[in-house]
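So, could you explain the following?
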Amino acid sequence: MSISRLARSIKQSPTLHLNDEAMAMRARGEPVLSLGVGEPQNKAPITAVLASAAKLREGDVKYVPTDGLPALKKAIIAYTEEFYGRLPAPENVIVSTGAKQALFNVLFSLLDPQDEVILLAPYWVSYPEMVKMCYGVPVVVTPEDGTFYHRMEEIEQAVSSYTKAIIVNSPNNPSGVVYPEDFIAELVDFCERRGIYLIMDDIYHRLVFDGKHAAPGYAYTDRSIEETRVIVINGVSKLYGMTGFRVGWAIANRQLVEVMTNVQAQMTSSASTVSQAAAVGALTGMQSVVENLRLSIQNNRDVILTELRTFTDLRVIPPDGTFYVLPDFRAYGQDSVELSRFLLRKALVVTVPGAAFGMEGYIRLSFSGSAKEIIEAMARIKWALDPNAPNEIYIGDRKLVRDWM
């Protein structure tokens, strides 16, 4: 079989590979716990469920405009006005099958072969592969000071005549950091002056802790949506616990949205009618579900940090948002993929290797599950790695003895 070079160049997701192995272990009856899945455990809002059910009851499940249901675009416009202080026109909004497709549509519509896109490490695992799928070149900028916070000097040094865009995800997956407002302000000003698109992946923008604020790019430009280089990506997956509905959107100038609409028309036509109806229900219904989730996740953040601080040789930067933390595990192993495999096979805990996010030696831990599961999973990880932990542990109904130290 002849497979294209482009398709062969796309890396396999280590997350999916480890999840597949974990599912096989669970099928054998092994008590596997997961700190790998980036998915809130709350139920979808009842307003979303009822709105989608109404569509099904009516049997009115037909083609809809490629760029989104008018009712959903209206809800997105109101949402943007409330949380971004900008009032886009319907022609500035395109609804896609998840924020992931919205981002892909942007990249596909902007990039010519060899155009460069700057990614701030740690970055979301799909960013470099999406850039490559659009024949672009990912350029990774890693903070030199060992933190997850970047300096403008580092980014400016990475910019070349081929730079077309910079992607910013704040709060950040996988680290949970919220980039400072002065950094976002500098970045917006730099991109506006240099004619570089600033793609703001805001999918976690309201899941922030301790009174922190995820600064929107729009706050630091006087240009209109038609003139600015800022592009916003968002969706209902994370804030509303609606990952399976697959609804996201992009906000950009009309010309770009028109091109993205043409691209999407040839790929998926539109997001599911039923899912779009659910998104309308979520955005226009009671918003207490978001605050309830945020408080629950903040409590889980505190739980996992308490557990991580008991490790002998672990460096951790506390997350200010999302439901992820990215500790430095290099004291226990330099190869994060092998370390994640080891934890799955010995401790029966699913984690995600930092190499997938451009941070070798780190491991991403999700705290989106229950506090009880988090405490149990961290006890297993400590038993497997920390020489100062007890040599024996019960996992399920079996007593295991550590014999590798």
In short: The domain at 5-43+288-393 is CATH 3.90.1150.10 (Aspartate Aminotransferase, domain 1). The radius of gyration is 22 Å. The mean pLDDT is 95. The longest helix spans residues 288-308.
